[in-house]
């Protein structure tokens, strides 16, 4: 009988502590990878398009529905819209909120782009 109690106790400990840790690490890893992929892709599209064009705005709108907040500004902190002159710097702020095992998590970063298209 004590062997069964020991097995049940071991399973309870495993389910209560180990499984949530694996879930949290796994879910967090997937979201972090997706976040880094999105930041890289949006940054390259802004660079290729030469600023915040309609194509970039459509992508940002689609990402807003998924929990991303993306803003564009210049060196002075003024919001940027439309095509920008060659060589101008655009700062892109990314913020992503998602639900993890323990609640809502937040990832944020910013990238700097120099416009490469005239």
Written overview of the protein:
The chain is an alpha+beta fold. Strand 4 (89-100) and strand 5 (103-114) form a beta hairpin. Helix content is 50%, strand content 29%. It has 2 helices and 5 strands. The chain has one domain (2-114). Helix 1 runs antiparallel to helix 2.
Write the layout of secondary structure elements.
Layout: H1 2-49, E1 51-52, H2 54-64, E2 68-73, E3 82-83, E4 89-100, E5 103-114
Antiparallel strand pairs: 1-3, 2-4, 4-5
The SSE string, one letter per element, is: HEHEEEE
Q: How large is the share of residues in beta strands?
A: 25-35%
Radius of gyration: 22 Å
Summarize the amount of helix as a percent range: 40-55%
- Give the strand tally: 5
Strand ordering within the main sheet: 2-4-5
Task: Estimate nothing, just give the exact number of structural domains.
Answer: 1
From the spread of the alpha carbons, the general shape counts as rod-shaped
What is the count of DSSP helices, taking H or I runs of 4+ residues? Answer: 2
Instruction: Give the structural class.
Output: alpha+beta
Give the overall pLDDT as a whole number.
89
Major β-sheet profile: 3 strands, antiparallel
For the termini, the CA-CA separation is 79 Å
- List the uncertain runs: none
Protein name: DUF4845 domain-containing protein
Transmembrane segments: 6-27
Keywords: Membrane, Transmembrane, Transmembrane helix
Organism: Siminovitchia sediminis
């Amino acid at each position: 009988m004590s062997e069964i109690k020991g097995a049940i106790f071991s399973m309870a400990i495993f389910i209560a502590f180990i499984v949530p840790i694996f879930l949290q690490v796994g879910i967090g890893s997937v979201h972090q990878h997706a976040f880094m992929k999105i930041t890289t892709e949006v940054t390259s599209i802004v660079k290729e398009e030469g600023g915040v064009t309609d194509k970039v705005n459509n992508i940002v709108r689609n990402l807003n529905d998924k929990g991303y907040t993306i803003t564009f500004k210049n060196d002075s902190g003024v919001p940027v819209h439309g095509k920008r002159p060659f060589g101008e710097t655009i700062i892109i702020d990314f913020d992503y909120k998602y639900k993890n095992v323990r609640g809502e998590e937040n990832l944020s970063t910013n990238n700097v782009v120099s416009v490469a298209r005239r």
